[in-house]
Design a protein that fits this description.
It is a single chain. The chain is mainly α. The protein has one domain. About 80% of the residues lie in helices and about 0% in strands. Helix 1 runs antiparallel to helix 4 (about 90-120), helix 2 (about 35-55) crosses helix 3 (about 65-85) and helix 3 packs antiparallel against helix 4 (about 90-120). The longest helix has 30 residues, at about 90-120. It comes from [Mycobacterium] fortunisiensis. InterPro entries: DUF3054. Keywords: Membrane, Transmembrane, Transmembrane helix. This is DUF3054 domain-containing protein.
């Protein structure tokens, strides 16, 4: 169980970094480690908050509640921290961030669930 939890948490964190990297690239911002870290830290914090709220280590690959709580927390906490640090939180960014992080954070869990069902059949 510990290995599955660690792998799921790492997958979530990588998904958030991928989201931030793609966002920086699409806006022609520098793809430096420092730049990605600056963009990612609010969302990574939100991901960790979501893991704590959902007790993600108990059901790390479940779509609900873990995946949904982690996704919502990633977006909400991430946007609140961006607002508090005077970073951009335009409505269009909130929409795009919500959609992309949903695909990433919920998508890998949906694929994992499908693979588990297929293996048990």
């Amino acid at each position: 169980m510990r290995r599955a939890s660690a792998a799921a948490l790492l997958t979530d964190l990588v998904c958030v970094v991928v989201f931030c990297t793609l966002g920086r690239r699409s806006h022609a911002e520098g793809l430096t480690v420092a730049g990605v870290a600056e963009t990612a830290w609010p969302f990574l914090t939100g991901t960790l908050v979501g893991w704590a709220l959902s007790r993600g280590w108990q059901r790390p690959t479940s779509l609900a509640p873990t995946g949904i709580v982690v996704w919502i927390s990633t977006v909400v906490v991430g946007m609140l921290l961006r607002k508090l640090t005077s970073a951009g939180v335009a409505v269009s960014f909130i929409v795009v961030a919500s959609l992309v992080t949903a695909v990433l954070l919920l998508g890998w869990r949906a694929v994992a669930a499908g693979l588990r069902r297929r293996q048990s059949a």
